[in-house]
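Retro notes (design track)

What went well: tokenization of the new backbones is finally stable.
What didn't: we kept losing track of which sequence belonged to which structure.
Fix going forward: every design gets posted as structure first, then sequence, in one message. First example under the new rule, 231 residues:
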């Protein structure tokens, strides 16, 4: 398992209040506006003045400025190196995206998230120091395919292409049985992390805990094993 994926969790744990977003296309704009509406301070930047003005007019960022992020001097002047988390949301311009990520890494930005537009782009971003790479088109396609085939899965976090943490509705066959009786680890190779009942998480449930219809299990393991769980 590629544990570098857990960088994602580390990123979430950071007590960030400020974010810089480089590139204000559809993806960058969505990241920017969502963080801003959640109450965080967000600096949005783009090389295109129109996109900068748009985000300011629509009041979707705290600050926004025009800047070429391939220029280390421009990044420094804009104060981008002082941010703990910077999102490189330049998907379609691979060279600019790679140079920008490298600039941020060399300046010591602690947590760099970058958007990839292809598998090779994703590899290059990792190589130049991105801490977490998103590949939204690919991930959305995989998620759709999975949701079409395994409808009891409510949510999923991919650790790597073969392993995930999923929230799954307790299968009918598990109703009224204890965790010890079900032997989920022995039979399916999965670890039960938590049970969600009435919206409340019960982390590390006791082996004597009964599972009930309508509850949700949070399990971690191999996707093939997750698919073997009954529905
Ligand atoms: P989409 O908008 O199709 O979802 P995306 O969000 O990946 O795709 P891109 O088409 O990759 O968006 O463009 C992202 C933004 O990055 C554009 O607004 C573009 O002007 C900006 N950009 C490109 N090069 C630079 C650069 N050197 N410095 C700053 N911004 C840049």
């Amino acid at each position: 398992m590629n544990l570098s994926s857990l960088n994602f969790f580390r990123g979430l744990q950071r007590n960030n209040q400020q974010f810089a977003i480089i590139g204000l296309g559809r993806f960058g704009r969505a990241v920017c506006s969502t963080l801003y509406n959640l109450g965080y301070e967000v600096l949005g930047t783009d090389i295109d003045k129109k996109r900068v003005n748009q985000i300011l007019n629509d009041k979707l960022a705290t600050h926004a400025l025009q800047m070429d992020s391939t220029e280390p001097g421009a990044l420094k002047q804009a104060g981008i190196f002082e941010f703990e988390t910077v999102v490189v949301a330049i998907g379609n311009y691979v060279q600019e995206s790679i140079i920008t990520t490298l600039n941020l890494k060399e300046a010591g930005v602690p947590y760099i998230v970058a958007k990839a537009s292809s598998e090779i782009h994703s590899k290059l971003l990792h190589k130049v120091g991105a801490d977490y790479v998103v590949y939204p088109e690919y991930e959305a396609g995989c998620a759709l395919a999975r949701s079409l085939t395994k409808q009891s899965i409510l949510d999923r976090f991919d650790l790597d292409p073969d392993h995930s943490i999923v929230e799954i509705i307790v299968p009918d066959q598990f109703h009224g049985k204890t965790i010890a009786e079900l032997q989920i680890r022995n039979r399916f190779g999965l670890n039960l992390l938590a049970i969600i009942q009435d919206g409340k998480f019960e982390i590390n449930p006791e082996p004597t805990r009964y599972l009930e219809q309508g509850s949700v299990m949070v399990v971690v393991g191999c996707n093939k094993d997750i698919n073997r769980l009954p529905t």
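Added context from the reviewer: Residues 1-13 have pLDDT under 50 and may be disordered.
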